[in-house]
Amino acid sequence: DVTAGTFSNQALVSALNPLNPLGPSITDDSDDPDDPTNDDPDNDGSPDDPTVTDLRQPLLDITKQDTYVDTNANGIIDAGDTINYVFDVTNRGNVDLTGISVTDALVTVVP
User: Fold this and answer.
1) For the chain, which end, N or C, has fewer CB atoms within 10 Å of the first or last residue's CB respectively?
2) Read out DSSP for 29-73?
């Protein structure tokens, strides 16, 4: 179901008919109030569409690793030295994602 992206389920309610206890039960299939189609396959005036649950879960994870570069090799952190960053972006969800971009307010990100 996760691979399909949705799970569909429908319940059935039944009760004895007090006007005809020996006759058939009164029944109705559940309706999804969020489904605008309101299908009524048995034409009883009561919609009977299954409840469909969306199982898709987009989820991104990002890590940022730094590497200090002693530009003048003097062993001291001073002006002119740099810090390089590596971003690792992982799609941890179950939905394909497109148009992914990384921004950082303090550094220029190069894909």
Assistant:
1) C
2) E---TT-TT---TT-SSS--PPEEEE-----EEEEEEEEEE-TT-
